[in-house]
């Protein structure tokens, strides 16, 4: 994590074209303010989005709000979103809000990537 | 000798940033209070949501937090001078079922209800007084080292 920052955010793209966001820090008020504006453009253009929460030690409602905004944009575009690696308390927060009703929750990045790539392939074949 | 409850209190300004200050304060006192990791997470979460509600919606100018670590529970009192609001009586919001038509915000009060095991609210002398109770979940002797006796 960067010195002085509440939340670090690293974005890469997999060979399957899935956007992989790794967050590192506390997804509290300050952390959400630091990364919120970067999620909007990602949700607008991603084929599928996986947010890796392995290094997120804490989340509160403003962090969930940031994730929900992305989920809403992706759903409207017909794209998928997943989070992975959440610790027990972070996952409990997400499930308490019902976030798991609008995005997938996986234990790790490998299982999230595999599932989203498979769904994207199914979707493409049905369209074709 | 039975463990004596230890109570800490601190005043905070009615600002969003004060939530982070409260979090740092709790982290600095967590060892002295003997808070388990899950209990500290729950208290931090509830305090952040209470600050947000009090400042953004209640227009509070100040808040006082008191934390009491007792053998059977950790009790946190949050007192603010904002508009009257009883979080214990509020209907919690939760997304129900897969949908794209869901609210983006408004989940904080439900989180406070979910992560505390008991809530009691009263409005006195123009102040909201909310007491939250959490599982003790204490790690070892809850008293600071200086207070422990053989």
- Our count of domains of chain B comes out at 1
Return the CATH class of chain A: Alpha Beta
CATH homologous superfamily title of chain B:
Histidine kinase-like ATPase, C-terminal domain
What series of H and E elements makes up the topology of chain B?
EHHEEHEE
Q: What's the helical proportion of residues of chain A?
A: 40-55%
Average pLDDT metric of chain A:
92
- What's the pLDDT, averaged over the residues of chain B? 88
Largest interface: A-B, 23 and 29 residues
Structure, explained:
Chain A has 128 residues and is of the alpha/beta class. Chain A has a single domain, classed as 2-Layer Sandwich (Transcription Regulator spoIIAA). Helix content of chain A is 48%, strand content 28%. Chain A is built from four helices and five strands. Chain A has helices at residues 29-45, 61-76, 88-97, 109-127; strands at residues 7-13, 19-27, 48-59, 80-84, 104-106. A five-stranded mixed beta sheet of chain A has the order 1-2-3-4-5, sandwiched between helices. In chain A, α2 (61-76) links the parallel β3 (48-59) and β4. In chain A, α1 (29-45) runs parallel beside α2. Chain B has one domain (9-96, 105-147): 2-Layer Sandwich (Heat Shock Protein 90). Chain B is built from three helices and five strands, in the order βααββαββ. Chain B has a five-stranded antiparallel beta sheet, covered by helices on one side. Chains A and B meet through α2 and α3 of A and α1, α2 and α3 of B.
Helix and strand arrangement:
The complex is a heterodimer of chains A (128) and B (150).
Chain A lengths: L6 E7 L5 E9 L1 H17 L2 E12 L1 H16 L3 E5 L3 H10 L6 E3 L2 H19 L1
Parallel strand pairs in A: 2-3, 3-4, 4-5
Antiparallel strand pairs in A: 1-2
Chain B lengths: L5 E8 L3 H17 L3 H21 L4 E8 L3 E8 L27 H8 L2 E7 L2 E9 L15
Antiparallel strand pairs in B: 1-2, 2-3, 3-5, 4-5
Helix pairs in contact in B: 1-2, 2-3
What features would you highlight for this structure?
heterodimer; A: 128 residues; alpha/beta; Transcription Regulator spoIIAA; globular; B: 150 residues; Heat Shock Protein 90; five-stranded antiparallel beta sheet; 3 helices; disordered C terminus
